[in-house]
Amino acid sequence: MSTETTKERESDPNRDVPPDAAVAADEPKPYRKNASPEKGKTIIDMSAVTKTFFRGKEPLTVLDGLSLAIEEGAFEALMGPSGSGKSTLLNLIAGLDRPTSGKATVAGHDIGAMSDGELAKFRARHIGFIFQSYNLMPVLTARENVELPLLLTKLSGAERKKRAETALRVTGLENRMDHYPRQLSGGQEQRVAIARAIVHDPTILVCDEPTGDLDRKSADDILELLTKLNVDFKKTILMVTHDPAAAERATVTRHLNKGKLE
């Protein structure tokens, strides 16, 4: 059984391209503010999920019969020691991997039952990725980096530009749209990465140590932005972190150890 700790929310060279940076399925919906989720609706449902990898013939169970339910519009933090299965759980929720056994249902989709192509479309529609390393293309401006997830949609160039600019305004970078990553601070680079994550209006934001490379002030600014995306834009956020100060911004903190929720 998992235990949940409810907290009072506080009131702001080359890099690789992240998964699905240029993969999209259907035309994204217009960006929505205050799109209130259905109260009590479960958006992530894990039932007896096990994930096993093999080292040669030796099995390594990373997730062991894990079950959890996350409501739409939640902001949850996931903590635990290195090797506890946090990133593996994020990968399953994001459709980057499938469970070995059990059932993982995310935004109404059975992750284990989908083909690779279906998973790519699922990620493009429902998942926004935010990483510890920003994964920005150094030869592209902030706006061009944010446009990447929209390149394979049917949107016109003008509409892609408009949506990228809207996402950058949401993240407070309206005056940095034409700057290259080398011209930005670490906190500003992470804001560009967040704008890229939300430009297609995903259902869920999956954050893997989003403040891990930042100083305290920049980290607090990013956490304030994530809070804004959760409160004002009703984004469901699942954040892996080792930082207790970051976990304090979430409404629920879960602790994972040896593949089990404590």
CATH superfamily: P-loop containing nucleotide triphosphate hydrolases
- Derived structural class: alpha/beta
CATH topology: Rossmann fold
What share of residues is helical? 25-40%
Radius of gyration: 18 Å
| Oligomeric category | single chain
The number of distinct β-strands equals 11
Overall domain count: 1
User: Which ranges are low-confidence, i.e. pLDDT below 50, for 5 or more consecutive residues?
Assistant: 1-26
Known CATH architecture: 3-Layer(aba) Sandwich
Core attributes:
11 strands; 25% strand; 27% helix; Rossmann fold; 262 residues; 7-stranded mixed beta sheet; globular; 7 helices; single chain; alpha/beta; disordered N terminus
Would you mind describing this structure in some detail?
This protein is an alpha/beta fold and 262 residues long. It has one domain: Rossmann fold. It is 27% helix and 25% strand. The protein contains 7 helices and 11 strands. It has helices at residues 86-93, 116-126, 142-147, 157-170, 186-198, 216-231, 244-247, and strands at 5-6, 42-55, 58-71, 75-79, 101-106, 109-110, 127-130, 204-208, 236-240, 252-257, 260-261. Strands 1, 4, 7, 8, 9, 10 and 11 form a 7-stranded mixed sheet that branches. Strands 3-2-5-6 form a 4-stranded antiparallel sheet, covered by helices on one side. Strand 8, helix 6 and strand 9 form a beta-alpha-beta unit. The radius of gyration is 18 Å and the shape is globular. Residues 1-26 have low confidence and may be disordered.
